[in-house]
Automatic annotation (TrEMBL):
Pfam families: 4HBT_2. Keywords: Hydrolase. This is Acyl-CoA thioesterase. Gene3D superfamilies: Hotdog Thioesterase. Signal peptide: none annotated. Its EC number is 3.1.2.-. It is an enzyme of class 3 (hydrolase). NCBIfam families: YbgC/FadM family acyl-CoA thioesterase (TIGR00051). It comes from the Bacteria. Belongs to the 4-hydroxybenzoyl-CoA thioesterase family. The keyword Calcium does not apply. The keyword Transport does not apply. One of its GO terms (molecular function) is hydrolase activity.
Length: 141
């Protein structure tokens, strides 16, 4: 299975008064992980947008396991869990430097046209990208 890894430097602004990372920041880190995965595979989300498409989140699930704090350097591990005709599910693990889990998550996405919000199969936009996702997906859709 192909897993992209991206280290995150926790910024003070991402924490609450206790120095613990505010839960919504995990969503930003997941986006960083997806972008890193796409780039590691040789593609760019920026080009998808430039071509008139976006890939919004349609479902999201996070399980928080152990707090991340200011000064920590967690790693976001990202992979393609499933990839079907219209939907892609990404899997995530956010891990502490010692390897303990901070959080696990999944996010579901579709590709849509910017101008009318209609879903478009990735296979029609970029057959190579679609083939790579199909190849590396942990399980079928």
């Amino acid at each position: 299975m192909f897993v992209s890894e991206k280290e995150i430097e926790v910024r003070y602004a991402e924490t609450d008064q206790m120095g613990v990372v505010y839960h919504a920041n995990y969503l930003v880190w997941m986006e960083i992980g997806r972008t890193s995965l796409i780039q590691d595979l040789g593609f760019t989300y920026h080009q998808l947008e430039a071509d008139g498409y976006v890939s919004p989140v349609t479902d999201l699930n996070i399980q928080y396991k152990k707090a991340v704090k200011y000064g920590d350097r967690p790693t976001v591990r990202t992979w393609v869990e499933t990839h079907g005709k219209l939907r892609t599910v990404y899997g995530y693990e956010i891990v502490h430097e010692d390897g303990t889990l901070a959080a696990t998550a999944k996010s579901e996405h579709v590709v849509i046209r910017k101008d009318n919000s209609r879903p478009v199969p990735l296979s029609k936009l970029d057959p190579e990208w679609n083939a790579k996702y199909t190849e590396i997906a942990r399980s079928g859709n």
